[in-house]
Each structure stands twice: as structure tokens, then as C-alpha cells.
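We emphasize that the prediction below concerns an isolated chain of 221 residues; any contacts that depend on oligomerization or on bound cofactors are therefore not represented. The input was used exactly as deposited, without trimming of termini.
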Amino acid sequence: MPSSWSKQAQQLGPVRYFNAGAGMSVIGGEITGVPSNVGANQGGQDRPGDRIIIGEEDALALSDTSIGTLYGGLYQYVTTKSGAVAAATRGKACFWDTAVANKLFQVTPDESGAQGVAMFAGVYINTLTAGNSWWIQQAGKVFVRMKAVFTGIPANGCAVYLAEAGAGEPGVFDVLDGGGNPSFTQVGSMLKNYAGVAEGVPVAAGIGIPINIPLCRNFRW
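Result of the prediction step, given as a C-alpha cell string:
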């Protein structure tokens, strides 16, 4: 990605809604309006690793509200792994694919057998076709998919964690508060898996309320 923190909103590619469609099969989208024999670049083309910070009004304008509402925050353009086992589903977490070069900015909905959810990349804001490229949200207010059965007791404003649920329920989020006294090992896992704070009372087995993910909760620059 360019060495700037984020690209400008007016440089977005051919986008109407951020949270609609199944992603782009061609990275950045098809170049339009340029003859095939001219070596020109579409100025608004999106590249893997591009980031954009948008405010509340822009986020709402980019929302297909029949799918869900987006909020101001940090978004990044990534490619989702073509050979993933799990589906890249709206509201689920995705993780950096460490099997490929960092510069490819490839994510996967599969939790790693060795690293679990440690390499958290962000949240899918729409359901993508495996292998396609699109935007994920990395910071700010975002709706997430919760675990079917919480470990702890949900409450308004409680901490929300990556569930580390494995192949059975990958990419979902959990509540741990009130779930007992943790060991030092469990505290370490909590620090690693912390995702944000619930805005409302989390509801198990679905997308009910949003959480607020802190800035820079990711590992690719």
C-alpha cells in the first residue's frame, strides 16, 4: 500500500455501497474509460492494503441499509483467501493469511491451527466470494456475529473477545465477563483476543448489536 495513512474518499473505485455485493474478482475493479492500447491507470482503482478513514455521514451514504448500517471508522481493502474452508460472512472476523507475503494483504475467515485468532485483521462488512477483494472494517463501530453460547454474562458496555472457536464456529465473538476467575494463561489469551466494547447487550447466535473496535488493532501496514 502507499506509505500514507489512508487514501482520500474521492479516490474510491467504482463503489456505490461498501457493504453490498460479493467483492471484486479483479483487484481494484475493471479499469473503465481507458482504451486498451493506452498505458493509463484508473485513478480511483483500489489496491490491496489501501486504507480509508470515513466519518458517520460518509459511512451512512456508503451503506446499503437493507443489509446493514456502516459507521465511521477505519477500513482496509484486502483479498479474501480463495481456498478458505469457512465462508467470508458479514459480521465475522477475518485473519491475516500468514502463508502468503504480507504485501498481498490476504485475509482468511479460517482460524489458524497454530495461532488461533491472534492475527486478527478486521470484520467482514458484507459476505464475500472466496478469492475476491473488498473492504473490511478494522476500527470503529461495527456489527459483529456472536457465538451461539456465550462463555460469560452479556451486559451493555462489556468487553467483547474473539471467540477462538475453531473449525466448528470460526470468526465469531464471545463475552467472558462473569465467566469465572481466569488463570494467568487465560488472562494472556484475553489480552490477545480482545476486540472491543459492546454498545448494547450482546445477543448470542447472530448480529444483534455493534461493538467498538479500538484503532490499530491489526498487524499489516
